[in-house]
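Hello everyone,

My group is preparing for a crystallization screen and wants a predicted model to guide construct design. The compound we'll soak is zinc ion. Before spending weeks at the bench, it would help to have a computed complex in hand. I've included the protein sequence and the ligand's SMILES below. Output in structure-token form would be ideal because that's what our pipeline reads.
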Amino acid sequence: MSELRKDPITGRWVIIAAERKRRPLDFLPGKEDTVPPSGPCPFCQGNEDKTPPEIFALRDKGTKPNTPGWQVRVVPNKFPALRIEGELNPTRIGLFDMMNGVGAHEVVIENSAHDRGPSDYSQEEMGKVIQAYRERMLDLRKDDRVQYILIFKNHGRRAGASLGHSHTQLIALPEVPIQVKEELSAARRHLNNRKICLFCDILKQELDSSERVVLENENFVCLEPFAPRFPFETWIFPKEHRPHFFRISRQEEKSLSEILPQTLRRIKVALGDPPYNYIIHTSPLKEESGYYHWHLEIMPQLTRIAGFELGTGFFMNPISPEQAAQQLKEVG
Ligand SMILES: [Zn+2]
Ligand SMILES: [Zn+2]
Ligand SMILES: [Zn+2]
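Reply:
Good plan to model first. Here are the tokens for the complex, ready for your pipeline.
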């Protein structure tokens, strides 16, 4: 079993996933750029027995689990960072806090077609993926040990995707990650001082100036943030103030399934299919105070973080968000 260890200086949790060392090649420098995956694709239709048994699927009526006939399929990760079985057993060793690597690590196989990704998806296809995200969150939040659920996508080997077949990952954590805690405390401060949600306030200012807004639809705004860490970093915000992603309405689900592929298509056209990551930031599961505002962050991987970023938490970004917004508007 993996272990969670807390850095007593920063409060940051680290997963020591020693089990995953079954893939030692992963550590070789530059490997992710050069070695293509070998063997039959475990995520393709007909290879359902190559993955652990499915947890959730949207499939044709009358088809059985773990057989062909699905549109979206969710399975446990074969090399999980955290496992659902076992007790957390939080322990203190002098100054140090640690616990067992209990949680969940799942894979959402987004589409049965091997060579399609979110930038190719129709609204209907993306809608099924979003539905799977929501259903899995609703199910995992019933587990008392789970404090936070992160949904994240790695597209392209340089962004961490180890298989070409488009998929998203979900990790359910027994601790709230430090990045979310930072966003939460900023939101709490803003609400106390200005009596308005920080994210709603940002959205209002961005829509007023429209300088960094790339596109919007009925329920969502896609924009380049004022201080982006990465070139073409792009955020998608729901207009409606909602702390928890899993509480999105049917209408919002439809709107998001439209704007997300549109945004990714623009990034693909403007930048030539770059590797990217996207993540969904949502409120911690047990947090009901309501001052968080869920959102989706897209981070194209065009630059590498290096010594300066690692040593400071500052980021060096060669393109202004105003220029990036302009370019993404033009390719529309
Ligand atoms: Zn495949
Ligand atoms: Zn808000
Ligand atoms: Zn965020």
